[in-house]
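User: Predict the structure for this protein chain, please.
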Amino acid sequence: MAQAHMQETGRDGTGPERAGARARRLMGQWRGPGVWRRGLVVAAIAALLGLLMLLHTHLPNRVGNLGSLTETFLPWLGLGIPVLLVLAVLRRSATALIALLLPAVAWVNLFGGLLTDKSGKGGNFTVATHNVNAENPDPAGTARDVAASGADVVALEELKASAVPTYEQALASSYKYHSVQGTVGIWSKYPLQLVQPVDIRMGWTRALRATVKTPQGPVAVYVAHMPSVRVKFNAGFTAGQRDNSAEALGEAIAKEPEKKVLLLGDLNGTMNDRSLAPITSQLRSAQGAAGDGFGFSWPASFPMARIDQIMVRGMDPVSAWTLPKTGSDHLPVAARMKI
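Assistant: Here is the predicted structure, written as structure tokens:
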């Protein structure tokens, strides 16, 4: 009988009886008043994180543009949720676990729709845009890479004057029509009309407007490169000039007589950034409507934000995606529309 008992329980004491006792002990640690009193600091941080996501539009921009800075990297706040979850489990805190529901629900409400692939098939008009970087070591290769997307219209930003002939030569075989205004340019397979610079209050040309004569009718295309923003220790998120340019571009788009409108370019801001509201309130993001994932485009080495945008009005985005890395510090982005 003694031998039979040893075979059932095992010599190391890890048989069914000991395992059951361990499970009951672990369950007991999640009972009693202590489970509600532990982890209050973790719970407080979780609540603050959730409130930050829910109320980000109320963060003031008066001090270092704190609101815009937070909104630029808003999706990354979600990384705090699994960290707090681990801490809540380690502390065996029911209070912290319940508090974590607030940031989890807030993040899913804000960005859950971007986790699914919304791209479809079809469409008859493809566009691409790329900040090529003035210091790009391989402009010809970059031009060929973007043209390989098969886009009907390509917009390039941050064109260095000495590199423009290289881009023109590399794209000539694919695009019969093009125009360069200042540091931005447009290349098209279809005729261009009414090409003109757009004043975005910078003192030099970094935006243009053109009418593309597609087989489905005219499309007004804007190409823009908003002023850069900086994150400084003593000044926060300095974006005053960018915000002024966004207002000027928004005014130009508001006066656009064409029903079908496209905006391609580097806006140096995300769709969540309230300072781009003069633009984003009028147009629809192709990535948000028909993209796969977040579509982060900058920096190319480790994309953390989508500041390169394709936005539409009067057309239906069918799909949107990022293109492979080139010699630039941005990734090219592309989208296909149905006109």
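The longest strand covers residues 217-225.
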